[in-house]
Write a structure and sequence with these properties.
By secondary structure, this protein is α/β, with parallel strands linked by helices. The chain contains eight helices and eight strands; from the N terminus they run E-H-E-H-H-H-E-H-E-H-E-E-E-H-E-H. It has one domain (3-119, 169-220): P-loop containing nucleotide triphosphate hydrolases (Rossmann fold, 3-Layer(aba) Sandwich). 47% of the residues lie in helices and 16% in strands. The strands form two sheets. Strands 2-3-1-4-8 form a five-stranded parallel sheet, sandwiched between helices.
C-alpha cells in the first residue's frame, strides 16, 4: 500500500511525533521541511544558498524558494512508495504549488490529516517547556517535570524558558498559524481528502484515530 499524506496542525499539536509514528508503522518516508531545509543549506544547493541570504538578513524565505526546495525532495526515488509531509504547506500558495508539483510527477495527495487542538491547551503545552542551559535536555513543567524545580535531572544544570516559549510569543505564533494555515484546511476540505483528528488526547489515542483514518482512505490509494 502506498499513500502520500500531508500533516496539518498548529505548533504544539504533535504533528512531528505522529508523522514519525506513521512512518515507522507503515514504512512511508517522513519529510520534515525543517530537515530538507537544513540539508539544502548544508549541501549548498542553489536554492539553499538563496534561502540562506534571506535567513541571514532575518527575512522570511519567499514561497517560491521554499516550494523549489520541497519540489527537489519530492523527485527523489525513495518517496515512490509514499511519504508523510510535515511542515508544508504552510499557506494557500504552497498548498496549490504542492498539488501542481505532484501532478507533474504523476502523483497526488491521498490524505490530509489535520490535528486540531484548542488554543489554551497549546499555550499550556508550548509555554511549559524548560531547557537545560548546560546539556540542552528538555523538560516540561506539567508533562515531564524535573525532580527538583529549575534543575536538570541529567547534569544538574539550570533550566530556563526559551524566549519563543513565553506565553505572549506562543499566542503570537498561534495567531500567525491561524491566519496563514487555516485557509489551507479550507482548501483541502472540498476534496474529501481531509480528516480532522482531536489532538488533545494522549499520543497513543491520537495515533489510533490516525490509523483508523489511514485504513479508511487506503482503499483509494495507489498500491
Amino acid at each position: 500500500m502506498s499513500m502520500n499524506i500531508v500533516m496539518l496542525g498548529p505548533p504544539g499539536a504533535g504533528k512531528g511525533t505522529q508523522a514519525e509514528r506513521i512512518s515507522a508503522t507503515f514504512g512511508w518516508k517522513q519529510i520534515s521541511t525543517g530537515d530538507i531545509f537544513r540539508a539544502a543549506l548544508a549541501d549548498g544547493t542553489p536554492l539553499g544558498l538563496e534561502a540562506k541570504k534571506y535567513m541571514e538578513a532575518g527575512e522570511l524565505v519567499p514561497d517560491e524558494i521554499v516550494e523549489g526546495i520541497v519540489a527537489e525532495r519530492l523527485k527523489e526515488p525513495d518517496l515512490e512508495d509514499g511519504f508523510v509531509l510535515d511542515g508544508f504547506p504552510r499557506n494557500l500558495h504552497q498548498a496549490k504549488a504542492l498539488d501542481r508539483m505532484l501532478e507533474e510527477n504523476g502523483s497526488k495527495i491521498d490524505l490530509v490529516i489535520n490535528i486540531a487542538v484548542d488554543t489554551e491547551t497549546l499555550v499550556r503545552r508550548l509555554s511549559g517547556r524548560r531547557v537545560c542551559k548546560k546539556c540542552g535536555a528538555n523538560f516540561h513543567v506539567l508533562f515531564n517535570p524535573p525532580s527538583k524545580a529549575g534543575i536538570c535531572d541529567n547534569c544538574g544544570g539550570d533550566l530556563y524558558q526559551r524566549e519563543d516559549d513565553n506565553e505572549e510569543t506562543v499566542r503570537r505564533r498561534l495567531k500567525v498559524y491561524e491566519e496563514q494555515t487555516e485557509p489551507v484546511v479550507s482548501y483541502y476540505k472540498p476534496s474529501g481528502r481531509l480528516v480532522s483528528i482531536d489532538g488533545t488526547g494522549a499520543p497513543d489515542e491520537v495515533f489510533m484515530e490516525i490509523q483508523s483514518a489511514i485504513n479508511k482512505f487506503s482503499g483509494g490509494a495507489t498500491t
